[in-house]
Amino acid sequence: MSLAIKVVTLFPEMIREVLSTSILGRAERQGQVTYEVLDIRDRAVDRHGTVDDAPYGGGAGMVLMAPPVVETVEAARSGDATPVLLMSAQGERLDEDLVLELAAQAAAAGELVLVCGHYKGVDQRVLDLLRPREVSIGDYVLTGGELPALVVIDALVRRLPGVLGNSESAENDSFTAALDGGLEGPWYTRPPEYRGLAVPEILISGHHANIERWRAERSRERTRERRPDLAAGRRRPPRDRDGGAGE
């Protein structure tokens, strides 16, 4: 059964363009996932296409109105069991553990709805009525939730069985259990020498046990140098599955 991913946005063409390319597009063509992009403006509150307004109490910026967002999500999801994610700078920060958790939830439900905020944010009643899980891709603010939504989709889709040509490609990525939550080491391909820089001899030795040992050592070394926070916590404790912000 394919996973149905539905994106609620003010900029559908921005989403569709990315979802049709590379691994994301191939996954859809192979039937492993389906995409549906829903335009919030289709449920605007008036004939002028109004979907936002000034905040009550004053303040800069505009706020996405509750009716068009709530009604678009309700039309998108098959039932209350469908996970709904709201892209928000105030949400849980996306990491590999959260990706795996979201992937499992989406697979169990068979579909996933992602809501792209915009302007100042969404009316609080969107959160009160839909109870979405808020997800952030980092401690910074973007113009809208479209780019974060695409990041989440990419991270999830590449985890679907058969999407990547070799399942080990995902299983041995940085932050995965195979690397003890750390970073990947360096990679090399042809030519064997370029501008005086040669591929390490061990990688062309054909001794697979030694190669794996070398890669593990380089992984630990790179993690210590670039992400000492990960090195100190290896292996990171599993995410609390009983609760957390945004649930």
Radius of gyration: 21 Å
Strand order across the largest sheet: 2-1-6-5-8
Taking all residues together, what is the mean pLDDT? 91
Instruction: Give me the CATH superfamily of the largest domain.
Output: SPOUT methyltransferase, trefoil knot domain
Strand content: 15-25%
Q: Could you tell me how far the N terminus lies from the C terminus, measured between alpha carbons in angstroms?
A: 26 Å
| Top CATH class of the largest domain | Alpha Beta
The assigned structural class equals: alpha/beta
The tally of strands reads 10
Summarize the helices and strands and which ones pair or pack.
Layout: E1 3-9, H1 12-19, H2 22-29, E2 33-39, E3 52-53, E4 63-64, H3 66-76, E5 84-93, H4 96-109, E6 111-116, E7 121-122, H5 124-130, E8 133-136, H6 146-157, H7 168-171, E9 193-194, E10 197-198, H8 208-226, H9 228-233
Parallel strand pairs: 1-2, 1-6, 4-7, 5-6, 5-8
Antiparallel strand pairs: 3-4, 9-10
Helix pairs in contact: 3-5, 4-6
